[in-house]
Amino acid sequence: MRLRDIRPWGPRDRVRPLDQSQLADAAEAALPGELIRLECELVFRRATETAQVAVATARAAITEAGGQVVSEARHVDFDYHALLIDLPGEEVARIAALQDNSLAGLDPILSIMPQSRSATIEPGEGEQADALEQPELNEQPVVAIFDAVPQQSHPWIANWLSVSDPQDLEALAVGPRVHGTAMASIVVHGDRNVVSRPIGRKLYFRALMYAPASDPFGNSRERFVDDRLVIDLMVEAVRTMREEGHDQIVAVNLSLGDPNKQYSGRVSAWARAIDYLSFRYDVLFIISSGNVGGSLQLDDYQHADNFRASTDASRKSALLRALDVVKADRRLLAPAESVNALSVGAWHRDSLDALPLPNGRYVGFPECDMPNVSSALGHGHKSAVKPDVLFPGGREHLILAPVNQPVNVSPNARGTRFGGIRVAAPSLPGQAQDYSAWTLGSSASAAYATHTAHLIYEVLEQEYGDVFAALPNSQKAVLLKALLAHPATWNTSDAFIIATKFPVQVNWDQMRREVSRHLGYGFVWPPDALSCAADRATLWAAGRLLPEEAVEYRLPVPNDFSGTAELRSVRATLAWFSPTRPGHQSYRASKLRVIPLSDNVKSAVGVAPAVEPPWTQTEAGTLIHRRWSGQAFGHLAAGSSISLQIQREKDQGPALDDAIPYGFAVTVTMEDNPAIYDEVLSRVAVRPRSRVQV
């Protein structure tokens, strides 16, 4: 018996429940004769002739249904063939009803969905921007932003931007240019709530979206152009970037996500494109995990008065339980599930002074490091750790609905002086001044991570000169990926999550997986990714591994690891880019590993494994972050070192000839011991140029 004999692939496989609901709403709202724009992905057929027959069949059915094809895209590199189509409301209603005689019943079609869009931030409170000194910049960009047309004249970003706009979206951008302006501001400056060093190079900015005119209610959502598939646009943007001569760019900020495409077990076409482009063009995509709004029902509280009278501890536990109930509806937005990208969630943190909140607003997780309530949750493909890390995304407060029973709370979607990352903002209507505003969410977090990546690049360039400059782009990109994630830690939030979700202890791996669903590998405070300190030293390496090859690094162990029983730790982070196999169960084609420390080595150093995601989960992606810590006396002789080995496992699927680029970072720490950095420095061959601890 064949699966086809049990139940053939049909309409309910081609239209996801979320898409089905949206298509039904669109059909109901359509006027007579109005066409609705949809995306239709075809079953990928590698043979050109077979693909042509399939697309001809689909085109004929679309025409017969009274529709038309707007655009077609086919990319054999990541198994993508799709049509952008217009259909009458009646046909869309049949698709939403999962009728066999609709397009949803057509054999060549894999999926039908609403047109891709991106959820962009709403403008927050604004105030006049302060003056800013304009430094001299290196004209060659190493970082890019793909986003909506920015306000190029804003003094906080004007000197840094090198804008590419081949579609002339500038002419269409007549509404408030909020998102691109804000993201450019964060990538250049970080959070303007604090005075910090901006990046020292030009920034390549590719316009992908534009702000249309505001509607009668004053709303304007930045959007992609209507007549292009977003996947085609993304591929073109990367290729154009290289064709324009920007061959030193190694990181791209993509603070975009499609709310119509939450990850549901199948890697989206957008994520497949990102994975291909990462490996093919040697570029690290830093992607926002996505924001998922909507209210949460707190079943612990029947009335608002009960909620107000409750304790902070009770409220934050009730909030986490409410999130757990709806976690399936708050998953990553495409393309954040990309296996090669660094996916970044929003940490409930910023640099604003805490102010008393207005009535009816509350801190979601007081006295506890947690993501913003709206920050999308993991996991990624094959339960890989996603989002990878959490960067500051502004303090998002909750708004209490005073009459709902049980109690409902909603995340505040706009940054204010009570919480947010301060950014450049477009001028207010009728005003000529340049403004700043506060923004919230994972878009800001990804931009903050990109800002940090740029500063890391500059530090490595300054301190290591030709040693770093001579690395190929692929190794620079994965090294930045490793160093961005390297400081990540759960702090003590894992204990809160486990105690709340599992009042009765269950399987240890299951509990840690649930922690990583919220926290990924952990929180990263940007300054921690940029510097060492007297009591810690970070070492880095980059290289390439051929099939089933391994490399060994010797890590100097400070003598005080054996001389005292103070808290010490070793952490190691490995990042790489993998080719992919779309359509295969083993989507990721290459796997690297950090061989765990043996029991003898852990005893000799005085450490034990720290609480972290289970190894089966950490090894499902292309970023591995391992930590060991303890307070036991070690027993190594003075001047000793330990071995850390990276190996490339047997390729998943047919063997690959490609050498896989990797970046590796290791840190040794002994808290409050000022001799650690200098001792490790004296025992390495390649040293930073300055005595500044970087």
Keywords:
Rossmann fold, 19 helices, Jelly Rolls, globular, Alpha-Beta Plaits, alpha+beta
Question: What do you see in this structure?
Answer:
This protein is an alpha+beta fold. The chain has three domains: 3-114, Alpha-Beta Plaits (2-Layer Sandwich), CATH 3.30.70; 126-291 and 317-358 and 368-394 and 413-467, Peptidase S8/S53 domain (Rossmann fold, 3-Layer(aba) Sandwich); 531-694, Jelly Rolls. The protein is 27% helix and 24% strand. The protein is built from 19 helices and 29 strands. Strands 6, 7, 8, 9, 10, 12, 15 and 17 form an eight-stranded mixed β-sheet that branches. Strands 22-29-24-27-26 form a five-stranded antiparallel β-sheet. Strands 2-3-1-4 form a four-stranded antiparallel β-sheet. β2 (68-75) and β3 form a beta hairpin. The chain is globular and about 80 Å long. The model has no long low-confidence stretch (mean pLDDT 93).
**Whole-number radius of gyration?**
26 Å
Strand content: 15-25%
Overall pLDDT, averaged? 93
Q: State the end-to-end distance.
A: 64 Å
**Main sheet overview:** 8 strands, mixed
Judging from the principal axes of the Cα atoms, what is the shape?
globular
What is the CATH domain class of the largest domain?
Alpha Beta
Pick out the low-confidence regions.
none
